[in-house]
């Protein structure tokens, strides 16, 4: 990699950090008095359950991935699954590749610990884990969309005049995004149909030939998961309640700490749509995009601007805290030297 290419990669990484930091700073300094008063009046004892339930959400994510590795016969202990999951969160925050970069490092580390002949399958479990989580998130958003309409129709954007037509267009685009996300996440499970198509079939055979059977191994691994579709469906349902809805619980405790009783549906809508916006690769660990989306919807749901921003800033602090905690798993990992080598390769790529 040339010096210029490295410089360009890090430049865009810092641009993303600047955008995320700029959005958070804007939210903070737009209503400084209300936010300062919110931090002063906040009952910090409510941070304890908020932290515990966010930790539970991350533990369920690690457990889900561990279940998916067992289906494919990848040897990985429960603690290793937790350690690599936490390291993935950490690297998603601190390396230029963002969320994708975290997964790349996670795949690389797992391949070092997987027996010969099963390295591709190990990496594939990470992809399937991401797919299961995405299906759960987009399905939840679609289920919430109809009851969310009254709140979304009250959305206001500071210094921008928007009318009902624009709000309706936003709702339609959000529905389209969720449907497209479900389609993109599920398409891998229809590979047997795709390989019969005139164009894609020959392409898959050509790719299999030049990759020495990699496509065949991927499709075979997908068939294994398809054979366990009841388990996958169960994991999707568990992800809806104990991954995505579980992120609402810490926020509810934070709002309680502020002395507020926010409508539960409004809170679920705000956090869920905020999590979807946070998927945009432009925002490291979702910071920035998730914040502005969640605050905007909470305000539309009759939460005071200062309270909405205080709650969101506290929530973002919890997210960043646990992402950084993932660095401890990296430091204490016996295989850290292999991970450091993979990091160098990732930064050189």
UniProtKB/TrEMBL annotation:
Coiled-coil region: none
CC terms in the record's Gene Ontology section: plasma membrane
Transmembrane segments: 12-29, 41-66, 86-105, 126-148, 168-190, 235-254, 260-280, 312-332
Pfam families the UniProt entry points to: LPG_synthase_TM
Localization, UniProt: Cell membrane
Keyword vocabulary terms for this entry: Cell membrane, Membrane, Transmembrane, Transmembrane helix
InterPro entries cross-referenced by the UniProt entry: L-PG_synthase/AglD
Bilayer topology annotation: Multi-pass membrane protein
Protein name per the record: Uncharacterized protein (TIRG00374 family)
Source organism (scientific name): Victivallis vadensis
């Amino acid at each position: 990699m040339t010096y210029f290419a490295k410089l360009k990669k890090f430049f865009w990484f810092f641009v993303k950090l600047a955008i995320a930091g700029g959005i958070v700073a804007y939210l903070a300094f737009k209503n400084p008095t209300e936010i300062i008063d919110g931090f002063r009046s906040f009952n910090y004892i409510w941070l304890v359950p908020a932290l515990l339930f966010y930790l539970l959400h991350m533990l369920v994510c690690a457990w889900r991935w561990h279940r998916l590795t067992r289906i494919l016969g990848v040897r990985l202990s429960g603690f290793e699954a937790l350690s690599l999951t936490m390291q993935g969160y950490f690297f998603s925050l601190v390396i230029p590749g963002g969320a994708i970069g975290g997964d790349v490092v996670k795949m690389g580390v797992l391949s070092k610990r997987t027996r010969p002949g099963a390295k591709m399958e190990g990496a594939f479990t990470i992809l399937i884990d991401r797919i299961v989580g995405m299906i759960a998130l987009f399905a939840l958003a679609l289920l919430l969309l109809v009851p969310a309409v009254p709140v979304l129709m009250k959305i206001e954007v500071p210094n921008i005049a928007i009318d009902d037509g624009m709000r309706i267009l936003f709702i339609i685009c959000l529905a389209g995004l969720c449907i497209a996300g479900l389609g993109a996440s599920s398409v891998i499970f229809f590979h047997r149909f795709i390989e019969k198509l005139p164009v894609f079939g020959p392409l898959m055979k050509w790719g299999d030939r030049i990759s020495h059977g990699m496509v065949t191994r991927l499709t075979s691994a997908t068939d294994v998961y398809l054979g366990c579709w009841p388990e996958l469906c169960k994991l999707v349902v568990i992800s809806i309640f104990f991954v995505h809805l579980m992120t609402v619980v810490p926020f509810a405790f934070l709002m309680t700490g502020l002395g507020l009783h926010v409508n539960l549906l409004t809170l679920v809508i705000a956090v869920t749509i905020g999590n979807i916006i946070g998927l945009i690769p432009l925002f490291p660990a979702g910071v920035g995009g998730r914040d502005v989306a969640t605050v905007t919807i909470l305000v539309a749901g009759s939460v005071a601007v200062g309270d909405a921003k205080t709650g969101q800033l506290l929530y973002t602090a919890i997210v960043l805290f646990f992402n950084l905690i993932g660095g401890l798993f990296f430091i204490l990992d016996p295989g850290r030297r292999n991970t450091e080598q993979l990091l160098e390769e990732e930064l050189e790529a």
